[in-house]
Here is the input.
Amino acid sequence: MPPAASEIPSLAPVVAIFIMGYLAWWVGNSDTREAEQEATKMAVKADKAKRKVVKAQDRATTAEIEAALSRERVKEAEIARRTAEEAEQALRLSLLATERKWFEGVRPECCPSEEDIARMKAKYSYSPNFLHLAVVGSSGVGKSSFINAMCGLSNNDSVTARTGIVETTNTVTRYPDPSPNSQIIWYDVPGAGTHNVPEWQYFNDLGLYIFDCIIVLIDNRILDSDLAILRACEQFRNIQAFIVRSKSDQHINNMACDKMPRDFDPCDPDMDNEARSRYLQMKSEARKGFIDETRQNVQMNLESGNLSPKKVYIVCKDAVLAVRSDSRSSTAIDEAELLTDVGECVRRRLQSEYSN
Here is the structure.
């Protein structure tokens, strides 16, 4: 017989315990899961934060490297700038030195070759049986008038060199001396420093190294271009150079007139004896002063240019013509001596040529 209901153990407490245990387990597991989830979230955030830190550190390192490179580039740029400036300065000084050497006559890197000499001699119809004499100087010093006078010609003669206030010679012009039995060929050379012939290329480009004699004609003062030609002449043993001061009569007259009353006219036919006497006295004093000043000025410029002392011949064209015709001239100074010395130069040159 089955037991009575009262005899069967009650399941309620067991179920209750079971339920309570399950609930406790579930609650515990739920807290654990939430904690794990929270921990996972925190780990993800920590990882992200770590990656950000690493990226920030990388950026900082990169920035430091770039800053260091930038500083290095700045230094390199500054060094490059200074180097460029120094190179530019060195180039400028080199160009100035080269130009100065060119200006002084013969280009240091372009001395005339045998071919250059032969070419220029052919160009100027050079003949060993004649003395080839070039007259050089700045524009307006009276080269053509001087050549005419040295040939015994006036500027109005039909065979004379062209004359003018401005430079009338653009190329080297050849004038055989018309005097009987003369062995001189004159050459009228365009002025140094003109637009057509810059000073730095004057001597070589015109082939002045082929001439036997060069007369440097000066006016108010000796110029740097004149000194450059004289310096170049010293480098060539075949060239004899002369320094000639032209237009002496004009300068002396002007100096004398400057000491006379303002309205004084030296050409006045009605000039009284007192004025004439005073003018002649002023002219005599001016003549002496002009000669002394010219000689001192030329020697001073030669010395400052490291050139050897050299005589300066003081002349005027009218006095040269007078000496050529064996006439007396009150304006003569060094004309006779110049003609004599040029003649001696011709004699020595031709004698040397014949002996060879």
Residues 103-109, 163-168 have pLDDT under 50 and may be disordered. The longest strand covers residues 131-136. DSSP finds nine helices and six strands in the chain. The first helix runs from residue 12 to 103.
